[in-house]
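Problem: given the chain below (187 residues), write out its structure.
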Amino acid sequence: MIFLKYELELTDIIKSDQLLMSILKAVQVLQLNDCWVAAGVIRNKVWDYLHNVHTEINDIDVIYFDEFDSSIGKEKALESKLREIMPDQPWSVKNQARMHIKNKISPYGSSFDGVAHFPETPTAIAVRLNNNHIEILAPYGLTDLFEGIVRPTPPFNQNSELHTIYSNRIRSKNWGSIWSKLTVEFE
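Solution.
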């Protein structure tokens, strides 16, 4: 029941933000398989809302899954296309069919798998437009996002190398200086 409450709240937050809706529409134009806007742009929008602050978008993570063309060149071409649609935005397009290499783990089978391997639970969120409806991908739910809890996702909690990456990332982000109500798990 709480997921539905947070799902409705996230949908309302997104719908009320013209820039975020424009981003979702731009990404939809690409018509990519299993394509989503993910991670920080969504997380930060919710945290801004909960803290009544406004932060600038520092990157727009667009993820998709294409096991037949996992070239970095294709990702760069897609970023260029997005810059044509919405210039001056910090686009970052990543094919989840190759992102497992970064963490030296087994290949992902979908964008869901990719999001499930993001470092923190409130970052492991993705959204997209589908027939003018907002769809939400949240392998670990939305509770941590809305309750300001930052903890490692299971892959980053169960593997010591990945947990070190999580810990270093959390220390470098210094999110508490922007969003003061967060509860951050370091160890």
